[in-house]
Amino acid sequence: MSRGGPHGDGGPAGPGSAGPVTTGRERRATRGWRDSVREYARDVRGSVRGPLLVIAGLIVIWIVFQGLDDKFLSPRNLSNLSVDIVGTGLVAVGIVFVLLIKEIDLSVGSVSGLAGAAFAVLNVNHGVPEWLAVIVAVAAGTAVGAFHGFFHAWLGVPAFVVTLAGLLIWNGLTLYLLGASGTINIDEEGLVASLTSRHFGNDLAAYAVAALGTGGYFLAARRRRSRYRATGMPYRPRGEIWMRTGLLAVVAFAGAYTLNRFQGLPLALLIFLVVLVVSDYVLRRTRYGRQVYALGGGVEAARRAGIGVERVRIAMFMVSGTLAAVGGLFVASGLTSASPTTARAAGSGMLLINAIAAAVIGGTSLFGGRGSPWSVLLGVVVIQSIASGMGLLGVQDAVQFMITGGVLLAAVAADALSRRAQARRGRP
Questions:
Q1: Which residues are registered as beta bridge partners of 338?
Q2: What integer pLDDT is reported at residue 425 of this predicted model?
Q3: Each residue of 164-187: b (16+ CB within 10 Å) or e?
């Protein structure tokens, strides 16, 4: 999909010109494969350089840890990795929605812990059915997000301050709910526990998801190409679409094969992929999603375009709170308990740091207006791969914290340098 406007990057032809200006992107759309390759090489030096560097870094991480411990790339460890990314990944998707409007939500870790605690207290201590306790826990996250959004959008309190206060408030409420013991064990055979323990053992399940994802991408790319071509906008050539689809198919079916060598497709991973698809559709294919990106590009411009800035801001914090609560239930599922004191439990500072790191490493900008839910998948795999590898090697938590912090700092610095380079080139 082109990132240019109706006239590409060059704009309309000026007075007295012999004809319309043909930009590099338009030449790629009309002159065929060789121009596409040259234009893609220019993209590699520009807008797609970041994701490619992250992928290269991920490959290096996997090679290093595999060299240090040959169990790292085993089907068992990779399957566990695909489940471990889900809790943090869901929280990170909510962070993306807030980052896109140039804000931040520091309360997501505490909201996740609150959701897990609320579920455990209702279900275990008060005998509320699991399905109802899940609804109440998720609704609590939505309400917390609306609370933050109200103070920020309508009262003008900076999001940093509001959510920092929320971090303390909801963490305190979690401790109060859990009581003196600090930990409530949930039913290991129950609904929530099965979120991370259930796998689809039939090999066809994983391969079907891989085929569905690859086919869906191909059809969406073809439809987008036809739509852009009909309106005179730059579009991808068929060859590039086939190349991208082929690469996606290799990754998807290799992943399906690896998962099937252990226990099959994890339910948690399937749910995470569905959330990514739905989130991406909302942001890229709906009027509301376009308003989110417009608000991230500039508040005043968004107001002049008739966008309800306050309404969009509140909605984004509600999405963040909801996904934080859902992510907290997945974390509680993996631990089969609700506890704010465990180093990797929902409510801990590491969940917040990992969620922000996953979003930023994947390519979502801290400066607003750039990013997508799919960026979370790449970022969270990097973060969890580091954690998994260091866990296999028995590296102490103190070192893990320092390494994760260093990776986050590097990602933010790269984002800032990218923005500065784009500003020098006169690009938004």
A1: 184
A2: 61
A3: eebbeebbebbbebbeeeebbebe
The tokens for 170 are 């909801």
Answer whether 353's CB lies under 8 Å from 408's CB.
yes
Helix axes 203-230, 238-260, angle to 10 degrees: 170
pLDDT averaged over consecutive 10-residue blocks of the chain (428 residues)?
39 41 44 52 54 84 92 94 95 95 93 93 93 96 96 93 94 86 84 93 94 94 88 83 92 96 95 96 91 89 89 95 95 83 52 89 82 90 91 83 80 73 61
pLDDT of residue 63: 94
Cβ atoms of 317 and 100 within 8 Å: the answer is: no
- Residue-level pLDDT at 370: 82
Bridge partners (DSSP) listed for residue 184: 338
Helix crossing, 75-100 with 349-362: angle to 10°?
80
